[in-house]
Write a structure and sequence with these properties.
The protein has about 130 residues and is an alpha+beta fold. It has 5 helices and 4 strands; from the N terminus they run ααβαβαββα. The protein has a 4-stranded mixed sheet with strand order 2-1-3-4, with helices on both faces.
């Protein structure tokens, strides 16, 4: 019986940490975008609508979502892929705690912060909102 309580405690802890992570990331919505350098920084400073896709090559959900984002990036210069294993600094600036995460920045403000895999339709609607 004790083992059951230990398992329940571990599962409860894991779920509460997941919930906290998602809540913390979503609370960034409406906050100013972080200072960035390079192409991404220029786009954000100019107030453009930019979709940041944070992924990890080892993430199963990311492997399913990345081809969709790559297809979108070929058609739209405002889609930026960020490999969190290579660009940890940018992920930290945005407060990304899990992958896949998608952040929409417009007018220098974080308009949307989505955690988890998203459909192509959902991503396209984020880019096309007026």
């Amino acid at each position: 019986m004790t083992i059951v309580y230990i398992i329940i405690a571990i599962v409860g802890f894991f779920l509460s940490m997941q919930f906290f992570m998602i809540l913390k990331m979503r609370l960034r919505k409406g906050k100013p975008a972080p200072d960035l350098s390079g192409k991404a920084g220029r786009m954000v400073q100019q107030g453009e609508r930019v979709l940041f896709y944070f992924y990890s090559p080892s993430c199963r959900a990311c492997r399913a979502m990345t081809p969709i984002v790559e297809k979108m990036a070929k058609k739209n210069k405002n889609v930026i892929k960020v490999d969190v294993s290579r660009d940890v600094a940018m992920a930290r600036k945005f407060g990304v705690m899990g992958t896949p995460s998608t952040v929409l920045v417009e007018g220098g403000t974080i308009k949307e912060f989505l955690v988890g895999a998203q459909t192509e339709g959902r991503l396209m609607s984020l880019l096309q909102k007026a």
